[in-house]
Amino acid sequence: MKKVIVITSSPRKGGNSETLADCFIKGAESAGHSVKKIAVRDLGLQFCTGCMYCQSHDNCVLGDGMNAVYSEIENSDVIAFATPVYYYAVCGQLKTFLDRLNPLYPRKNRFKEVYLLASAAENDDGAFDGAASDINGWTACFDGVKFIKILRGKGLEGREDVSATPFPEEAFNMGKNI
Predict the structure, then answer these.
(1) Quick check: pTM over 0.85?
(2) Fewer Cβ neighbours under 10 Å: the N or C end of the chain?
(3) pLDDT (tens digit per residue) in 136-145
(4) Residue 36: CB partners within 8 Å, gap ≥ 6?
């Protein structure tokens, strides 16, 4: 059994990328894994100031919800990020969240596997390359951590377009097979 953290970054509750995250969660739970979902929109996220306080302390000086999630992420085996793709990259909320994970850098993190569930209006697989690069860049900062797989939920213009596609089943199977 693995401990899985799923980070949803859509500002819209119940949107396409969050639906994919929920399907991934159901798949992981069906395989017996323990799963916790964190919605970035609920953290009152502030931008990193680059003060580096976190490199010599157990927390961040900013008074938002991030301090409550660091140990959860540090002690997970698997991290799955879910994002809408805006302008060929992860959404701003996820980019800010990734920046705010800087306190994890000096820690002995348990996580070794990273997944990405992405949704976009574009129909071209290449529209997801920037988002994959963003996650790959973050993952590369941690020794022994691998970016395992991306689900490219393409052609999803409307809020609930994902339900009429094979992507929810793909997300379920991705979670089940971690």
Answers:
(1) yes
(2) N
(3) 999 999 999 9
(4) 3, 4, 5, 6, 72, 76
